[in-house]
Amino acid sequence: MIRKLKQADRPSLETILRKTKNFHAEEVDVALELIDIALLNNGQSDYHIFVSEEHGKISGYHCTGKRPLTDGVYDLYWIVVDPESSGKGIGKKLVQHAENFVRGRNARWLLAETSSKELYLATQKFYFKNEFSIVAKINDFYAVGDALLVFGKYLLNK
Predict the structure, then answer these.
(1) Mean pLDDT for the stretch of residues 102-127
(2) Distance between CA 72 and CA 152 in Å, rounded?
(3) Are the beta carbons of 130 and 95 closer than 8 angstroms?
(4) Tell me, what's the pLDDT at 120?
(5) Which of 5, 32, 48, 74 would you call most buried, defined as having the most Cβ atoms within 10 angstroms of its Cβ?
(6) Domain 2-154 class?
């Protein structure tokens, strides 16, 4: 089941973020900041967070938001699956939910950014497997030798 974020989900999401090996402390802090904004500011519309719950246990989440100054471009800020639930199709269900959610808001594009580092090869493969393509690359973005890869999926022809 995929449902909207609730306050009671925060501890589970923090645990999942902290045990995901790809994320360093600063990234976890940013993810938690977005979760807190979504939880504490009911009227905000910048971050839409949905969690995957399996048998009463949170197994992952996605966070999307409309790209400012566009009329149909959304960012997939975070898509995270509990490492213990990896390989069960939860990520695919979450990305499909994110796509359907933004389509319902007249989205043309769904964009996701990641690093070019080898540590993120599984992430890159995940996006390719889910029919995203690299729409932009900025070399030496995060650090020298670490490019920003912008994956995108055009949603109008689906």
Answers:
(1) 96
(2) 13
(3) yes
(4) 93
(5) 74
(6) alpha beta
| pTM recorded for the entire structure | 0.93
Token pair for 12: 């589970």
Displacement of CA 94 from its chain's centroid (Å) = 9
Burial 15-29, CB ≥16 within 10 A → b, else e: ebbeebeebeeeeee
73-81 β-sheet, strand order? 2-4, 48-54, 57-66, 73-81, 109-115, 146-154, 133-143
Beta bridge partners of 150: 113, 136
The identity of residue 80, as a single letter, is V
Residue 8 burial (CB count, 10 A)? 9
SS (H, E, C) the chain: CEEECCHHHHHHHHHHHHHCCCCCHHHHHHHHHHHHHHHHCCCCCCCEEEEEEECCEEEEEEEEEECCCCCCEEEEEEEEECHHHCCCCHHHHHHHHHHHHHHCCCCCEEEEEEECCHHHHHHHHHHHHCCCEEEEEEEEEEECCEEEEEEEEECCCC
pLDDT tens digit sequence for 28-49: 999 999 999 999 998 899 999 9
Residue whose structure tokens are 């996605």: 62
